[in-house]
Specification:
The structure is a single chain. By secondary structure, the chain is of the alpha/beta class. Among the domains are: 89 residues, Rossmann fold, CATH 3.40.50.10860; 100 residues, Rossmann fold, CATH 3.40.50. Helices cover 39% and strands 16% of the residues. The strands form two sheets. It has a six-stranded mixed beta sheet with strand order 2-1-9-8-6-7, sandwiched between helices. Strands 4-3-5 form a three-stranded parallel beta sheet, sandwiched between helices. 40% of the residues are buried.
Length: 275
């Protein structure tokens, strides 16, 4: 499990570099804290954890990544993950499969990796081709090797405030909040976006009980989505102490929607026109 924790910490670091804007009493004095600095701190901690694990006589942790198809973004993500793994002393492999692989063939491969004692962590890079059921694939990965935290068992444990594999981006947001000292207890939070891999887990982590096995943020959380009217969203963000933008919509949250002293965490990645 220690090896798996190191893998999870690494995946949390490599998935996204979120950016946090924390405004002080005067908007001109706003402080921007890049997630990159915190990510490097986490990488250093992961490197130390791995070294300690290996020195104690355990085998070096190993991550297997299954990459299906030719999606350029997916290839870039996977390359970043395996490079980060190597940097902290975790061995890894990327298993490339053509986009026409059948769901049955992919499930067979996952089963083999689940039962391979050399594999400590396993992830199947999303998205997958349309003819493959992503939920079936995520649920086929062993919950004990599920570094993405997408298996229904890990999602359920997260929702029940139990220790579990957490999705990388939501965990990264929580680390930014904790490591920069942003208070959450009793605070108003708006999460813009309700995706099952980002928005929903972020809201779950922020609103749940801080006294439980997997401590939550004890915040009052409002979730907005594509059918939330802009004026209603503005009403909620104007009273929010923390705003997390995870909707994948450029310029959804603008400066006039944020109150003085609020923290804004942007985890969106968007392609925009730049003349």
């Amino acid at each position: 499990m220690a090896a798996l924790r190191s893998l999870r910490k690494l995946c949390q670091h490599s998935q996204h570099h979120a950016c946090k804007l924390h405004t002080s009493a005067a908007r001109q004095a706003a402080v921007v804290i890049s997630g990159k600095k915190l990510a490097w701190q986490i990488r250093e901690e992961a490197r130390a954890d791995v070294e300690k694990w290996v020195i104690a006589g355990h085998k070096r942790p190993h991550l297997s990544v299954v990459l299906v198809g030719d999606n350029p973004a997916s290839h870039s993500y996977v390359l970043n993950k395996t490079r980060a793994a190597a940097d902290v002393g975790i061995s890894s492999e990327t298993i490339l499969k053509h986009s026409d692989i059948s769901e049955e063939e992919l499930l067979d491969l996952i089963y083999k990796l689940n039962t391979d004692h050399r594999v400590d962590g396993l992830l199947v890079q999303l998205p997958l081709p349309d003819h493959i059921d992503e939920r079936a694939i995520c649920n086929a990965v062993s919950p004990t090797k599920d570094v993405d935290g997408f298996h229904v068992v890990n999602v359920g444990r997260m929702c029940l405030d139990q220790s579990a594999m957490l999705p990388a981006t939501p965990w990264g947001v929580m680390e930014i909040i904790k490591r920069t000292g942003i208070p959450t207890l009793g605070k108003n939070v708006v999460v813009a976006g309700r995706s099952k891999n980002v928005g929903m887990p972020i809201a779950m982590l922020l609103h749940t009980d801080g006294r439980h096995e997997r401590p939550g943020g004890d915040a009052t959380v409002t979730i907005s989505h594509r059918y939330t009217p802009k004026e209603q969203l503005r009403h909620h963000t104007k009273i929010a102490d923390i705003v997390v933008a995870a909707a994948g919509i450029p310029n959804l949250i603008t400066a006039d929607m944020i109150k003085e002293g609020a923290a804004v965490i942007d985890v969106g990645i968007n392609r925009v026109w730049d003349p």
